[in-house]
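Sample pair:
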Amino acid sequence: MSGVWAAVPVKPFAGAKQRTASLLSPSQRALLAATMLEDVLAALAGAARLAGILVDTIDPEAARLAARYGARVVNEGALDGHTGAVNGMGRVLRAEGNAALLTLPGDIPRVTAAEVDAVVASRAGVPGLTIVPAHDELGSNAVLCDPPFSVPLRFGDDSYFPHLMAARAHGIEPVILRLPGIGLDIDHPADLRAFMAARPRKPTRTLALLQAFGL
């Protein structure tokens, strides 16, 4: 089996996380998005089992952060939403060989290098699919697709069970992992509260930022 590349789609930080507007100002939300991305990149850079990291973005600050952590920056499909960016990175990887794609969002700041390595270690064969669901089992917070496009990926607020069904429709029994760091994405005020209340608290940049905001 070939190497696994992490693939992180990143929207522009300006206007990010609008569903937390009841708690955070626009500038705070932009800073939160950048800080969460840095926590994710740090975890990916610390993982032992990845062949590399791709970040798909048109945001200059996101590109600078990606470069700081040794990630390769592309913009294939970056204007086509989360799914379009993931598929864009899949096209890049497919054109360069049979690398597997592990896509994660930039808003899971409790992710650890050990969790990333656990997802990569779950590979059972080719073709294959591993999914780490969101804590509410609605979203797909990490998807390992081996090789890219072995299962069509479509992301949104309710993608977990559709991804399971899509894999089985393609003759693939998906591997399901439940990992607390990857599972806690931050989209809503309730997610912020859950992140702040999580025990044990991982000492992340995001936690320090939210404490500085007074949350």
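The mean pLDDT is 94.
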